Amino acid sequence: MADRIRAVIVDDEKPARRNLTHLLGAETDIDLVAECANGLEALAAVEEHRPDLMFLDIQMPQITGFDVLRRIEDAHMPTIIFVTAYDAFAVKAFEVNALDYLLKPFDDQRFQQALARARERIHGDRGGDETALMRQLLTRLEAKTETAREAPQAKPEPLTRFMVKQDERYFFVRVEDVAWLCSAGNYVALHQDGKEHLVRGTLTETARRLGPGFLRISRTHIINVDAVQVFEPQFNGEYVAVMRDGATLTMSRKYKQIWGKLFPGR
Length: 266
Hints:
Layout: E1 5-10, H1 14-24, E2 30-36, H2 39-49, E3 53-57, H3 65-71, E4 79-84, H4 88-96, E5 100-103, H5 108-123, H6 130-150, E6 161-166, E7 169-174, E8 180-184, E9 187-192, E10 195-200, H7 203-208, E11 214-216, E12 221-224, E13 228-233, E14 239-243, E15 248-251, H8 259-262
Parallel strand pairs: 1-2, 1-3, 3-4, 4-5
Antiparallel strand pairs: 6-7, 8-9, 8-12, 9-10, 11-12, 13-14, 14-15
């Protein structure tokens, strides 16, 4: 095994890929040979580059991370660092079986810990049964995950305020004072009176805890309806929300079903 490590990133979310690319850029022994936005690109990258290390998102549309692993031949299986937003039961399963993972959102220290373990596996003797053990674990884990998805989910406590940090000081921002929110890698950007504040977390997690006055209009944006100045139609059937602070945010077709919540009967 050469000293340099060939790595591949697989994640359907561009901010997540950008964040991992940035972190790997500081590692002098790693060559990032491919960035993949879906499972098919991941399989092609394995075939072309034979990577030593793969950062693999589990939750991807059409072809999941589990599906990718099933289609890779044992002889070409790289060391895997799972990138996941799953709940505690999945994380516990990874830990018990000594599999590397990054739970979204993760910090730089957690990234370095997972990378250090991966280096040990790549440069050491991983053992012939590691791949078989991983496949068995993933089969059980996927089955348990599907069961958990079908179970009713308890609604989390609604957010009333955000704690933000600025110049080593912390202060609160009331939820109703936030005009709109957008995804920013491992953070959510809050826009309030023309100012931007970053809080750690994902947009999906935040959306679940916001009240009915907030609507998700795309994968990357949530709006406070009270902060919208006007909705402008576009030639392609989409709408743009023009916010009172001047921001223009496109309502994705995927989220167009929210139109009925905004204007019943339309």
